[in-house]
Amino acid sequence: MLAESLALSAVLFTIGVVGVLTRRNAIIIFMCVELMLNAVNLTFIAFSRYYGTAGQVFVVFVMTVAAAEAAVGLAIIIAIFRHRQSVNLQNINLLKG
Amino acid sequence: MEQHYPLFYTFHFYFFGVVAIASALAFVTRKSPVAAALWLVNTMFSLSAIYVLLDAQFIGVMQVLVYAGAIMVVFLFVIMLLNLGHPSEIADVRGKWPVMVAGLIGIALLAELMAISGTKIAGRFQVPAGFAADELTKYGAVGSIARPLFNEYLLAFELTSILLLVAIAGAVVLGRRRDASAR
Looking at residue B36, what is its pLDDT? Predict the structure, then answer.
């Protein structure tokens, strides 16, 4: 099941990347990043079956980082929304020059 | 490394794999953020079932508790708090050309990932066959993760607690109203 898991993980990661590139809603882009993290977790789990349980420990760390990232990122989105009344990235391009 | 799997196992693996991919596709194509979030929760549930099939029962439980239970609830809470439940009036999906370019990048990335996953991994990383299953029967689903976590990766574990503390402080500072400091 290693090859199948890796293929599934690759497909999910690609869907996440395409979502990040095509959407403009900051919250949906953020959720796409979570999907990419999930795809990487699946790779870790699939390999941990053949290369030792350390892979599952890394999944625990990835989940912790994802939780911290979600908390800080959503706080930033709330702060931006207070300023601009929008989370659409078309309205948040001040640094574009 | 190749072993024979019962039909029951194979069927459920493919079933949950197809559900995960279909839910992920539905997730990136939904206009409404709430619908997208719920499809993503469905993807995470299917992934948790696949984790259980891959002998990672504890991670499967953590997936449901932490990802589907905590992180996605925070997302839905923010969508509710900012009243973003309805599709936005400005086009959410980018124009025709960016979407086509993104699709091409996606196809290239997928081909690359498939090519990489086909390569052979050096034998020195490999543990003896059935090693993970032995660990599982010897220490249980939680013990086989806890042993490396609190031995080899103890420093990383402690640093993670600092990371969480910083994230809590950062979220509170960023989420505070501006005029609160003036008072």
Answer: 92
Question: What ipTM did this prediction achieve?
Answer: 0.91
Q: Give the minimum alpha-carbon distance from A92 to chain B in angstroms, rounded to a whole number.
A: 13
Burial of B174 (0-12, 13-18, 19+ CB in 10 A): middle
**SS3 call for A23:** strand
Cα torsion through B54, A41, A14, A97, rounded to 10: 170
Inter-residue contact A66 to B67 (CB < 8 Å): yes
Number of H helices, E strands in chain B: 7, 0
Question: What does the pLDDT profile of chain A (97 residues) look like in tens digits?
Answer: 788 899 999 999 999 999 999 988 889 999 999 999 999 999 999 988 878 888 899 999 999 999 999 999 999 999 888 888 888 887 777 776 6
Task: Kindly state the tokens that stand for B59.
Answer: 């991670």
Structure tokens at A54: 């350390």
Residue numbers in A near B1 (CB within 8 A) = 2, 50
Q: What is the pTM of this model?
A: 0.89
Interacting residues of B24 by C-beta distance below 8 A, sequence separation 6+:
A11, A12, A15, A16, A35, B39, B40, B43
Residue of A14, A27, A52 lying closest to B127 (CB–CB): A52
